[in-house]
Design a protein that fits this description.
- By secondary structure, the chain is of the alpha/beta class.
- The protein has 3 domains: about 240 residues, P-loop containing nucleotide triphosphate hydrolases (Rossmann fold, 3-Layer(aba) Sandwich), CATH 3.40.50.300; about 130 residues, Helicase, Ruva Protein, domain 3; about 110 residues.
- The protein has 24 helices and 16 strands.
- A hairpin with a 2-residue loop joins strand 8 and strand 9.
């Protein structure tokens, strides 16, 4: 709407041949333009290109109200906020209107009276897209007054008005969202009687406030979000309301680790120094996303509750902070994430998973350890396929694996979490055959990459029960599996 912002009255607006349109037509027209130009509206949303996004675009083209239905952490609210991009740069409203009255078609008593008294000199003001997005989190204490409105006794007293006068009405969020996008998050949390109040607004566009029957042709793009788990835990979307929401779109978790990594990288909030000084190998990124995959499949975690993408994001931020802390302790100038740093993400995991009874019995920390171990084990086969069955494997590589395992029959290795890079390298190089094996399989990697693979192989050998692994307060100890088994039995006696 370039060039319009200097217009200040309805008369000037008419001379400029300005054409009003409903918000649903506005969204539709702007989406059509972007599609025709090959522009991507939801460019920050990954993994939905062939599923959710086409459904949203079809709903907008159909001028539907929308319900995004999915588990936690599936970008439902983010999608809603991105819709602001499909709004016009500016729209005019009657100056002082509480309900964003269209200068050519006012719906409020205030707007109509303003035009009656001032005519074409009625002042207008311009509203930006970000001012036309209203979001409300549904909670059990939300009232009809909050959403629809109520009679305001203070206004009645100050203006000396009768309670029969429409001017005593205080409008709620929805009337104030006229010509806007209005989002209700977690819709099932609204009490059933509050959901009933939305019937007429969605279907007929009128509202009722304390006995006032107002024909209020509201122009609102409604978007709701809901978690299917809420249907059983806290409430449900009542059937008549569900019937009035024209498009219900199912969201989902990323289909593969590559998409998950893109989401994590785009959403993680890192300090510039962390980005500059801490290196995160692709292997560690894969393992981090695998933890979320394991959580979604775990028998300890409530499948219906879901595992948010925020688990990986928080864990990634914690990982970098763990390496940064070690770098500061050792007065080093840079750091590389280690496999042992995955232990530091347990606080990020605990708050992101809802456990079933068996998980509660195991304990949050125990379940978190189990998820990390499963991630290491299931990713290991991509790098060390020989681990499936070393006993039957007669290749030279298999012999090198067995030499590493044999070393632990008479030695142990203690990897302290905060040791310097030089000490970390020195301790790994003590394991006979470990460096030779990694050089043979991954000689194309940098020295830092090979060092990481050396540590990863030790963790993988432990998860495949070829050597033992013990988590101590400040370190991880690798040793002989048989000796560890005997010692644990002796302690039990």
């Amino acid at each position: 709407m370039k060039g319009y912002q200097n217009i200040r009255t309805i008369g000037e607006l008419k001379k400029a041949n300005y054409q009003s349109k409903s918000i649903k037509d506005e969204l539709r027209d702007n989406l059509i333009k972007k599609i025709q130009k090959g522009e991507t509206v939801f460019k920050e949303i990954y993994g939905y290109e062939d599923s959710v996004i086409p459904s949203i675009e079809r709903a907008i083209l159909s001028r539907h109200s929308i319900n995004l239905l999915g588990l936690r952490g599936q970008a439902k609210t983010k999608i809603a906020r991105i819709l602001v991009r499909l709004l016009d740069d500016l729209i005019p409203i009657i100056e002082g209107s509480e309900v964003n009255d269209d200068p050519f078609s006012p719906i409020s008593n205030y707007g109509k009276e303003k035009i009656e008294t001032e005519g074409e000199k009625t002042p207008i003001t311009w509203v930006r897209p970000e001012e036309r997005y209203i979001e409300k989190l549904a909670t059990p204490d939300v009232s009809i007054a909050d959403l629809i409105g109520d009679v305001d006794p203070i206004k009645a007293a100050n203006l000396k008005l009768s309670y029969a006068d429409e001017r005593v009405i205080h409008f709620g969020l929805i009337p104030r969202s006229n010509r806007c996008i209005f989002v209700i998050n977690e819709l099932p949390d609204l009490q059933a009687r509050i959901q009933v109040a939305l019937f007429n607004i969605l279907q007929e566009g009128d509202i009722q406030i304390r006995g006032f029957q107002l024909r209020f042709p509201l122009d609102v793009q409604f978007l709701f979000t809901a978690n299917p788990e809420d249907y059983t835990n806290r409430g449900s979307i009542i059937t008549p309301l569900k019937d009035r929401i024209q498009s219900q779109i199912l969201t989902h978790y990323p289909s593969d680790i590559e998409i998950s990594k893109r989401i994590t990288q785009s959403e993680a909030k890192l300090h510039p120094e962390q980005k500059a000084k801490v290196e995160v190998p692709e292997l560690v990124k894969d393992l981090l996303e695998q933890i979320s995959v394991e959580a979604r499949q775990s028998n300890y975690v409530d499948e219906k509750s879901g595992v948010s993408a925020r688990l990986s994001i928080s864990a990634y931020e914690t990982l970098l902070s763990s390496a940064e802390r070690r770098m500061l302790i050792n007065n080093e100038k840079a750091a590389v994430i280690r496999i042992s740093d995955l232990i530091s993400v347990i606080p990020a995991i605990i708050g992101k998973i809802e456990m079933v009874y068996e998980g509660e019995q195991e304990g949050a920390v125990g379940v978190s350890f189990a998820l990390i171990r499963e991630a290491i084990r299931n990713q290991a086969i991509n790098f060390f396929p020989e681990l499936k069955d070393l006993k039957k494997n007669t290749t030279k590589d298999a012999e090198l694996f067995r030499a590493v395992i044999q070393w632990f029959s008479s030695h142990s290795l203690d990897l302290i979490h905060d040791i310097s890079t030089n000490e970390y390298k020195s301790r790994l190089n003590k394991v006979d055959g470990l460096a030779i094996l990694i050089e043979r399989k991954y000689g194309h990697l940098s020295s830092k990459g090979q060092l990481l693979m050396m540590e990863y192989l030790l963790h993988a050998l432990a998860e495949y029960s070829y050597i033992s692994k013990s988590h101590l307060d400040s370190s991880i100890e690798f040793g002989d599996l048989l000796s560890s088994y005997i010692n644990s039995n002796e302690e039990s006696y």
